[in-house]
Write a structure and sequence with these properties.
The chain is α+β, with helices and mostly antiparallel strands. The chain contains five helices and nine strands; from the N terminus they run ββαααβββαβαβββ. A five-stranded antiparallel beta sheet has the order 1-2-3-4-5, covered by helices on one side. Strands 6, 7, 8 and 9 form a four-stranded antiparallel beta sheet that branches.
Amino acid sequence: MKTIPLVTQNSALELVAPNVARDAPLSVAWLAGAEGRNTLALMGVPSKHNAPSTLEREKARIYTFIHTTEQLNWMLSYNGHIVGAIWVDLTASGNLPAPSVHIMIGEPEARGKGLGSAALHAVIAHLKTIHQNTVYSRHLVDNKNALQLLASAGFEPDGNPYTDPDGLTWQNVAIKSS
């Protein structure tokens, strides 16, 4: 689904539309090596699926980001450099209702700068403008950074933790606004 650029409370951070040629090589680099494995593990990618990606796979993934009607997708542009992605699933998936927001700061040097928080606030504000007053997300129970990020944005636990078929334990969260 076509997304519009979003400004954030951080003047150096803008949420922009994905671009296959620009973003696919970055995505491959983010997912390579031990840092990439750790990033995907913290996002809940099971070990059996946690492997480096290829340029062809990332081109296809980003093409889907641009053309799907089931998601809204943005790339995080920080000081003119793409450092991550944020997306909203518009349909429920498994135990997670929709709309649900997800974020990945792929560039390790960009972590810890408040970019995730600024991106979340911008996306939540955008969702309110299209009458989505409850927004969901989830985090691995053991991922304290994700818990802190989501809680700081106003998300609260939604139901009890649950374990998926891969043995990962999740906590759904929701933010409700009027």
